[in-house]
Design a protein that fits this description.
By secondary structure, this protein is an alpha+beta fold. It is 29% helix and 32% strand.
Length: 319
């Protein structure tokens, strides 16, 4: 009963998924229940600050134990707390300069406990730091705006990405998903996802840039969808890319979420590849996010009124 009451009275938390912020309520998670995950997901400043705080608290606690003893440590002038604190730091870090040392059974007992704590904490901290540094991470750059325009004479959704490390990612694969709010016949609201097939979902070697293409034909869940329909369905796109980083010798993953206001109709990406005078390929990342207007067939459900030049849906064209 008490556990149920604690879960109901748990504070709301903000969870960030991509560009969305979700409020979670009714879930009471203890800080220590998943401390390893918290250590892995904390930012580096927060992680270092937390480790320093724990270090100081440990030493302050052991210094108090030394301080309340009957001269447990030799060569401590006047039995000052600050000297016991410094001795605790030397003991916890297993440094041990030698000028101060335990001289009673009580002092040896507390020092033994602190030595064990120091060895254990240093091993734990070494493992956490190594894990944080060794985690495989893909440095992929995604264009700010997905674009929809004609490609090979067919309306196509395009998303551009690039390998910011400019090393080789072998056997790269990409998958594109659409998330949409729907209402069932019974009136229940759901958020469903649909996979959007890509013209080319694999790349043998991702070193520079890669543009994903999804054809908006009759089989596409986005066929006949314009800006109004995107907003009505609260549609968002999720791109997942994975591959083998030959430098790290590990599989890396990257994920990008694009909300419907970011999708640009009747635009295509500015070309960033050209050839230098000596025949080498040149890529301009300064224009990576740039787009320009391009032709878009009316069958996509977004056309332009001849008189006003304003965008309208296919339904407006029919009326």
């Amino acid at each position: 009963m008490r556990n149920d009451e604690r879960e109901r009275t748990a504070k709301a938390r903000i969870v960030r998924l991509g560009d969305r912020e979700i409020i979670t309520e009714g879930l009471n998670l203890s800080f220590w229940a998943d401390i390893s995950h918290r250590c892995m997901t904390a930012s580096w400043p927060a992680f270092i600050a937390g480790a320093a705080l724990v270090f100081l608290l440990f030493n302050a606690a052991f210094a108090c134990l030394y301080w309340i003893g009957d001269q447990p440590i030799a060569n401590v002038p006047g039995g000052a707390y600050i000297d016991y604190f410094y001795f605790s730091i030397e003991t916890l870090s297993t440094a041990g300069y030698g000028d101060m040392h335990p001289q009673t059974h009580y002092g040896h007992f507390i020092a033994a406990i602190e030595l064990f704590t120091g060895i254990f904490s240093m091993s734990l901290m070494t493992g956490l730091i190594f894990t944080r540094f060794s985690r495989p991470q893909a440095r992929l750059l995604f264009a700010d705006n997905p674009v929809i325009c004609d490609h090979e004479g067919v309306p196509t959704l395009m998303i551009r990405l690039a390998n910011a490390r400019q090393n080789l990612i072998g056997n790269a694969s990409a998958r594109l998903w659409m998330f949409k709010d729907i209402v069932t016949v019974e009136g229940h609201s759901f958020r469903r996802f649909y996979e959007l097939p890509l013209l080319r979902s694999e790349s043998p070697a991702l070193a520079l840039s890669w543009t994903l293409h999804h054809v908006l034909d009759e089989t596409s869940p986005l066929h006949g969808t314009g800006p109004d329909e995107l907003a009505a369905g609260n549609i968002s796109l999720v791109v997942v890319v994975s591959g083998y980083d030959v430098v790290a010798a590990q599989t890396v993953h990257a994920r990008k979420t694009c909300e419907h206001p970011a999708i640009r109709f009747g635009h295509r990406y500015v070309d960033i590849l050209d050839t230098s005078d000596d025949g080498r390929i040149r890529i301009d990342y300064g224009r990576f996010h740039d787009t320009r207007e391009s032709r878009l067939s009316s069958q996509l459900a977004l056309t332009t009124e001849p008189a006003t030049g304003k965008p309208c849906t296919a339904r407006d064209r029919l009326t």
